[in-house]
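User: Quick sanity check before I run a bigger batch. Here is a single chain. Can you write out its predicted 3D structure?
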Amino acid sequence: MALRSMVAGAGSFGGVLLLLLLLTRGAGFPTRADTPSYAGLVVAYGDGTVDTVCVDLGADGVARGIEVLQDSGLHLEAAFGGEIVCQIGVVGCPGNDCWCAYPGAYWAYYHLDEAGAAWEFSGSGAASYQVAPGAVEGWRWGTESDLPVIPFDDICDVDSSPASVIYLPLVYRSLPG
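Assistant: Done. Predicted structure follows.
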């Protein structure tokens, strides 16, 4: 009865539009919950070169740190089940000799703090660490190179993702005349 009153009170065109919106809500139109979650990735190669990648965490929105790196599209060589990263891109050591440049250089793993202001060294390996949506993961080669602080929003343009698009049904009304 309440729906009938709302539709009748809205006029014929408004009533049809309201009814269509109510009926199509959840009828296959994408919503924010249907869209994938993302994490940012910052890779500093030790020579001043820095890559940033926005990585899709998939429908469930969870991934381990090594999966974020694997899904980035960057070349990767790792050992010990992904706990030790040997090479990203062309920088680092082959997978069968991860410590070829140690103690001078190795791939160090970091997480950007919740404020987005500073890097925190990871207390666990990339194969063990669970990455949350909106997080920024960092990798740095060498002991002297800097890992620039780059906020999530500068890596992942969430405003242009499908999550910010509102889909409405198209209502076409032919007027007499």
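The CA atoms of residues 52 and 118 lie 16 Å apart.

User: Great, the batch can go ahead then.
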